[in-house]
Amino acid sequence: MEIDFQTEPQRYKHWHLRLDGRVAHLILDVDEDGGLFNGYQLKLNSYDLGVDIELNDAIQRLRFEHPDVSIVLLESANPTVFSSGANIRMLAGASHAHKVNFCKFTNETRNAIEDASAWSQKTFISVIQGTCAGGGYELALATDHILMADDGSSSIALPEVPLLAVLPGTGGLTRITDKRKIRRDIADVFSTLEEGVRGPKALTWGLIDQTVPPSELAGVIEHLVCQLEEPPDTAGNRTGIILKPLERNSSDRTVSYSTVRVDKNRTGRTATLTISGPQSAAPENNDALSASGAAAWVLRCARELDDALLHLRFNEPDLGVLIFRTEGDSATALQHDAFLNQHAEHWLVREIMLYWKRVLKRIDLTSRSLVAVIDPGSCFVGLLAEIMFACDRTYMLMGQLDGDPRPSPVATLTTSNFGPYPMSNDLTRLQTRFIGQPSAVTELFDLIGNPLPAQTCLDLGLVTFAFDELDWEDE
């Protein structure tokens, strides 16, 4: 069965998204019989990949379609269970590759919540009533504030170690110690308690932020929302844009979008992703970008590339090498790149840049061999150059190909390569590339805006190999 990562609120099986002014209620209500695969039921608000696909979609829509929402309440429709975490029977029947990619996607979604908290003026609050265990608590840990009913039965737990002899795989122990700053001995004890802990002890240990008697829960939530409702960025009204469904055509050998094409070579076990640069000039101003909405090249390309990467991760495990190519006019791509950097304070530009940051991290963390090919017609410039820096190795043609009138390929650095799109280690890809030569990054900064031919790129360490026409096809 092919997994589709495209959805919308009208199609959700497991979540309800309800808007109340600047407050959004994101309510988990898992359909037991709505699992992505056969052979298990999603009891006790447990989740599989399908549940998280919807959660990821909801977070994206809150950022792009509802920018004025400043509070997101993460709740459960079941008063006795917040969430029991990842479905064990689903995991038992899954392949190793699916388990790895499931955990990776789940954690990327939790990271997206934290990213929205840090950069999109949204505060996420978990409201826990009933059991909150395993991945359910890991989901709560990704939010800014954990509110728990003090009713004698609500509890939190990371029972993976005592019950399954596995570590919490989507950030549980990491977020307890590194984010909530819990003492490591307490974290050790907590993660070995099968039954978990209830309100008072959870509060004393710092595992939650607040306990409330059930009779006072609604009032406390209302008070908390009133305290937090005004976002830091209150300049003007922000009108959201609609994330329309992607146009995608698929066959056994290709997946094509408007700006991305995936060609699959099953014999060679490779997939070539060709990214088309913009065909028209950058927007004149922020209003023009907003009017274009999801059709704007820079957002459309990010969404299509994201979908293609997820498709390859989950649906094509045997394609072990991903080859990245670009095509288009470098000057036009540089215009769009400059527009983003010049208007980065505008909410929509900021969200697009943050989305590209997440997509590029998705490339970084895709467990395949990644190769970039720079040949005539390529436009690895600025933002798109980040893709080649995310790859394991890069091949660049020196000069032109016989019979091809297009000019020799070049790469161009911009400010996009020096800060806006950090990796998971909070370093830029160039800083990571030259981790032992920090002075090299400083030297590269002085070359911003210069078209760099193959030999120069090779000398500067920006590409792995540079070949002339004679050796190009062989290599």
UniProtKB/TrEMBL annotation:
<dbReference type="GO" id="GO:0003824">
    <property type="term" value="F:catalytic activity"/>
</dbReference>
<dbReference type="Pfam" id="PF00378">
    <property type="entry name" value="ECH_1"/>
</dbReference>
<dbReference type="GO" id="GO:0006635">
    <property type="term" value="P:fatty acid beta-oxidation"/>
</dbReference>
<dbReference type="InterPro" id="IPR029045">
    <property type="entry name" value="ClpP/crotonase-like_dom_sf"/>
</dbReference>
<protein>
    <recommendedName>
        <fullName>Benzoyl-CoA-dihydrodiol lyase</fullName>
    </recommendedName>
</protein>
<dbReference type="InterPro" id="IPR001753">
    <property type="entry name" value="Enoyl-CoA_hydra/iso"/>
</dbReference>
